[in-house]
Amino acid sequence: AIEGGSGGGGGGGGGGGGGGGSDSQLQVPAVSFEALLETLSVLLSRPSMAEPAALALYTMLHGNPTFRDTLLSRSDLDTLIFPLLERVYNAEHARAPASLYVVVIVLLTFSEDSGFNTTAFQHLEMTTVPWYQERYMKKVSLGSLYILVTLRLLVYNLSRLNDFYLLENTLAILSNISPHAEQLHPYACQRMLAVLLTVTKKYSAYYDKFTQAQAGGAEQQQQQNLEQMLHVYSRCVEVMLRAVNMCLHRKIIHKN
What's the predicted TM-score (pTM) here? Predict the structure, then answer.
């Protein structure tokens, strides 16, 4: 409670200290953290409420350091992360790329915490992932699922959306989480190498097109477009190479 000031001089003369000097109190409503977490988990699992729930979670994470620290210290964050990953997995059903921004930023915020990354790989295991259609998986770590869904969004963005903001945040998630990768699911390893191969081939193709356009005196706009795509795939190759290299680092290769 926040206590207000006493009613000083006005009531002091005739009535003694009792009448005008009572302290007023403003009651601050208490919110159960457990109830809040449970409510957010339920709302994030509902398609019609997932976007506002993600926005509420984003606001609390970035506007309340105490909430953020308390949340990141928990060992049951899969209840929040799992529905967020499902929403990103179904990115093709999103109203627009911008509707994915908040969800991706929330996932990026979690990935910036090394304690969460370690927990995601070592202690949080999903029994099954019913919404993941490309491959039936059981007993997959939350960290492996994090990587799989992020890679899927990366590929979808490059082939359909061409959204630079989503690209940068997706690459940032991979950069943050890959140094902590342990006991990666075999399918996650396979997808990392497949995506690396894909973006490398795309980079090579755009490099050839760009050099040919320069040599042939193509229009300035065409050269700029090719140069932009060359930069995009250069970033992808850089991040993917670094991520694979992290998983093969001598300190953790025996765990992968």
Answer: 0.85
